[in-house]
Amino acid sequence: MRIETKELKADIFPEPTKERTENGIVELFLDEGVSVKLVGMIYGIEHSISNDEYEATLFLDHYNQRLKILSYSTTNIDSLILKVRSIAELNSFDKIFCVAPASDWTTFLRHGYVLEALIKYYLQGQDGFVMSKFRSQQRIVSNELMNEILQIEEIMSQPPSVITKARACPEGYMVRMAKPDDIPAMIKLYKKIFASYPSPLVYPDYMNQIFQKETLFMVCTDTDGNIAAAASADLLPKHKAAELTDCATDPEHRGKGLMSAIISSLEHELKRRGYICGYTMARARSYGMNNVFYHLGYEFMGRLNNNCDIFGAFEDMNIWVRDLRD
């Protein structure tokens, strides 16, 4: 059976964006009886918890209605998992997830988590297990799952292209590291491409804060210097891993291999810095992005159901991984 369209259509699944991004007051619960009120456009807050048995950094992701365990150390992982569940329940978040080491992932299973994906080489060369816990029937059910499975099968039914060919920048274009002066044009591109996005990518203050510190941005420009495409690498120096993300190509410049050239350039810079793992979370409905990473030699390693709000609704994200040491 073949898919009739190369780009799967979005359902009117939940429409989470409007009610969570309108200016107003958002109350987030840090613990039982402890909350903080935030005013304005709210995506989420980073929050640390600790006691004699654990230390952990969490991201209370209001925009995507989920709780992310960013990092942790513990002598009693069961105690940590129960505390995280309590905080998620207080905030009515219906998804919890983290990337666990090999020593811990079966403990997460015993607490009702599911293994959604594997990020190989994520923890300084060791594999990371993406463990997720769903807390609503709506969040766990993916209406497009079968179509997404068939689309991946179609993409991987052909042998990948020779990687060196994918690295070439097309004639008339140039790939370079983005500069602070590029931020307005990049924001314009992202607003043009994405109806909604799971991070504050379209806000100048946010872009200025993360630019070239937490995130490497690269752009592809045409002969007039206009930005035709952009992508980034979110750096996790402690893990020697980087997420390749924020990929966008102006529709007028699609089909020319610009994104492959950008990703290859980002890989080169990450290798120069000693990074081991390159991975991405690609929209499972996007034929183009999944096809790009497949032909750049990335391995498909799983799918995250209803992971984030992108293009105006919760969508599934495919995990693709590459060992940058190759």
How would you briefly describe this protein structure?
Helix content is 27%, strand content 37%. It has 10 helices and 15 strands.
Helices and strands in order:
Elements (H helix, E strand, L loop, with lengths): L16 H5 L3 E7 L2 E6 L5 E6 L3 E8 L4 E9 L2 H14 L4 E6 L4 H6 L3 E10 L2 E9 L2 H4 L4 H12 L6 H5 L6 E4 L5 H11 L10 H7 L4 E7 L5 E10 L4 E9 L8 H15 L4 E7 L3 H9 L3 E12 L2 E11 L3
Helix pairs in contact: 5-10
Helical run tally:
10
Name given to the CATH homologous superfamily of the largest domain: Gcn5-related N-acetyltransferase (GNAT)
Q: Count the domains.
A: 2
Per CATH, the architecture of the largest domain is: 3-Layer(aba) Sandwich
How would you describe the overall organization of this protein?
- It is a single chain.
- The chain is an alpha+beta fold and 326 residues long.
- The protein folds into two domains: 17-140, Gcn5-related N-acetyltransferase (GNAT) (Aminopeptidase, 3-Layer(aba) Sandwich), CATH 3.40.630; 145-323, 3-Layer(aba) Sandwich (Aminopeptidase), CATH 3.40.630.
- 27% of the residues lie in helices and 37% in strands.
- It has ten helices and 15 strands.
- The chain has helices spanning 17-21, 77-90, 105-110, 137-140, 145-156, 163-167, 183-193, 204-210, 258-272, 287-295, and strands at 25-31, 34-39, 45-50, 54-61, 66-74, 95-100, 114-123, 126-134, 174-177, 215-221, 227-236, 241-249, 277-283, 299-310, 313-323.
- The strands form three sheets. A seven-stranded mixed sheet has the order 9-10-11-12-13-15-14.
- A hairpin with a 2-residue loop joins strand 1 and strand 2 (34-39).
- Helix 5 (145-156) packs parallel to helix 10.
- The longest helix is centred in the C-terminal third of the chain and has 15 residues, at 258-272.
